[in-house]
Amino acid sequence: xxxxxxxxxxxxxxxxxxxxxxxxxxxxxxxxxxxxxxxxxxxxxxxxxxxxxxxxxxxxxxxxxxxxxxxxxxxxxxxxxxxxxxxxxxxxxxxxxxxxxxxxxxxxxxxxxxxxxxxxxxxxxxxxxxxxxxxxxxxxxxxxxxxxxxxxxxxxxxxxxxxxxxxxxxxxxxxxxxxxxxxxxxxxxxxxxxxxxxxxxxxxxxxxxxxxxxxxxxxxxxxxxxxxxxxxxxxxxxxxxxxxxxxxxxxxxxxxxxxxxxxxxxxxxxxxxxxxxxxxxxxxxxxxxxxxxxxxxxxxxxxxxxxxxxxxxxxxxxxxxxxxxxxxxxx
Length: 331
Ligand SMILES: [Zn+2]
Prior knowledge:
By secondary structure, this protein is an alpha/beta fold.
């Protein structure tokens, strides 16, 4: 009898519509049509993890998309959103969850991981009153204080996330401590106690995997890895989900806004920052480019063994081709 390795732990992943917004192509990709604007989704994902011996899965949402109520945004955010019209707010994440027609509603969500806290990803956290929020290091400081002239505090909501239900991931590197990026906020004991039944933050540590220098095994079984993916905004993280023995899904958030950049057909656009310099949609364009290179390298490194599907939050083409993978369907 041959000895066979145990099958890897897997999760199920379903896409959710969580609103749409409109992006001018010239701000996002090189060699753009200066007039072209595309209305694109801000995708959310339901990830379900069933631990051995349990009957109820732990349910996690990755990103919450656009707020249903525009008045939930600050006036500065609303001024920015005015440049992204049309914005479609229905169905939002919660409506899409309920429209799945199963018994799963917002009160059944245990965890929410935000790739980052831009307005089109934070959604309506108050809908998820049972959930604990997990965000990249520095995120709560960013919400409170902003960061520098391009990211002033009024572009964020300082009370966006409930402090007693929010856990910031550990610092990725000691280097982060000395830099001017937003400081880490230690999670409260109440937030840590909430996730103790199914997560063990005491064992969390950033470890390399293939081309990624820093991944964090969320459940300790390899089924969901949080991937440090710097460049777009402080605390930006991605999620690598194993959905089958030979299939990964890589949820890329805003690592890029247009999959043509990942495919190498386009580059990251640069435009005037209004201060005599150039900027991109990323806080650190070079770091964002390095993150994209690592993602491409990761996919290549497993080619032939494990297939990796990369999905970025604003990919309208993927949405159109994969309607059957939206909740209650699965990837
Ligand atoms: Zn963003």
